């Protein structure tokens, strides 16, 4: 690692590796949410629309579209930056100029079906923070692992994603 990269990842920033949020409940996904999802995507899978069909293929009732289950934790935003509820990445003590955030990769595992009306909760952990030189300069790469659990504390979704954060750049006038 270059000297610039080493100095970018401070001791204070390193202390965030391993930090985990408390388990927090997610908003209940409703029939109305499913209808809006179907209207927006055209994905009218009978597994999310019909209890009878879901039972006919071995499920106790209709399922939630996995994309909705995976999106809800990402939609959590805490403007007050409360460490009990905010996304940890939003609380990191990054240099003030590092505001240009990009998705650097994501892997999601769907481990169990989720049913309409099921109570869900999420928890996340910062698993790595590194500095790397890229095409746009020296970036900070933050990897976070997130889990969504059902009311039986079973993990239904596990996602590992990395965000690349670069200094804000201004377009030069030509």
SSE order, as H and E?
HHEHHHHEEEE
Q: Give me the CATH superfamily of the domain at 3-27 and 81-167.
A: Hotdog Thioesterase
DSSP E strands, number: 5
Determine and state the CATH class of the domain at 3-27 and 81-167: Alpha Beta
Oligomer: single chain
Low-confidence regions: none
Instruction: Briefly note the CATH topology name of the domain at 3-27 and 81-167.
Output: Thiol Ester Dehydrase, Chain A
CATH architecture of the domain at 3-27 and 81-167: Roll
Helical residues, percent: 10-25%
Q: What overall geometry do the principal axes of the alpha carbons give?
A: elongated
Strand order of the largest sheet: 1-3-4-5-2
Helix count, DSSP H or I runs of 4 or more residues = 6
Which structural class should the secondary elements be placed in? alpha+beta
Instruction: Kindly report how far apart the N and C termini lie.
Output: 35 Å
Task: Give me the Rg, rounded.
Answer: 19 Å
Strand content: 25-35%
Q: Quick check: average pLDDT?
A: 88
What composes the largest sheet?
Answer: 5 strands, antiparallel
Structure overview:
With 174 residues, the protein is α+β, with helices and mostly antiparallel strands. It has a domain at 3-27 and 81-167: Roll (Thiol Ester Dehydrase, Chain A). It has 6 helices and 5 strands. A 5-stranded antiparallel sheet has the order 1-3-4-5-2. A hairpin with a 2-residue loop joins strand 3 (121-134) and strand 4. It is elongated. The mean pLDDT is 88.
